[in-house]
Amino acid sequence: SFVIWNSGGGTLSGTVSAPAPFSIVSGASFSLLPGQPQEVVVRFSSATAGSFSKSVSISSTGGSKTVTATAVAHKVSFSPAQVDFGSGLLVLREQCNKMGMCGLGTEKVGLPIEKTLTIKNEGTVAVSLTLSTSAPYKIVSAAPSLAPEQSGQVTVRFDPSESGSFIGAVQVGITGGQGSVSSPPLVGMAHKIRISPANLDFGIALVNFSRTKRLLVKNESPSPLALMVSVGVPYQLVEQDSLVSQVSLTLAQDESRHLAIRLLPTTSGRINSSLLLTVGTTNIEVPLTTVAYTLEEEDYLALLRQEGGYPIS
Prior knowledge:
Helix content is about 5%, strand content about 65%. By secondary structure, it is mainly beta. The strands form 6 sheets. Strands 9, 10, 16, 19, 21, 23, 24 and 26 form an 8-stranded mixed beta sheet that branches. β6 and β7 (about 65-75) form a beta hairpin.
């Protein structure tokens, strides 16, 4: 804005005009008594990038005058059209510290996830940017300024602490300017799954005698959870009275499933393997352990005498 002031002794009347990309918002005409002021508000709004300098014309009964109006219109573009962070997992299972104290804890698997957003200065003037976003997204690094036609990458981190589907954006402002523009959407998903127990210890098993343990898997996400379950030999999954090495299942919100894992050792010794819960490209590992003996092995017979029975289930 600027002010027209009647410093004469009579009535001052006239009009004010401005060429595009400037326009007069208020005060385009005036009729002022001696000593009376009037504010003229000018707006700048350009559809193209560039530097602009135009003359605002004042025509009045007291003569003509011009006021120079200058402004810069910046233009930035973004790629890709959407920044997809995919999905990560929040795993709830028992955790123990070095003191041997155990409790339910949350473990992040496949999180945090980082992606890049490219910003290009399509204007004719160098630009300094101010960037911001909101949780669960965080800007890790960014190019602070861009020359004309220069591109820069912004690294954004997706690190949720709760499950759900999250849509965000990077707000891009011009340093010292007014307003900001939003980047294309940032999208990410976090699933929450509960596992109990944290590992399956089959204890002591006899060669050629089977043992079965169960693992509780519960979907605590607000949306259905599709996962693939697989085990390594000699462990197998019991699915509809059949023994399989992997099975796929979908759990609705708050739905739980008990997975039966059977072991039939054919040789003695320590048998370590794992059960994998795969969600998308993320794996959750559950250790599977046991020690197998034959009936003739002296160590097993000594253990049997000590415990007073056959530890077979």
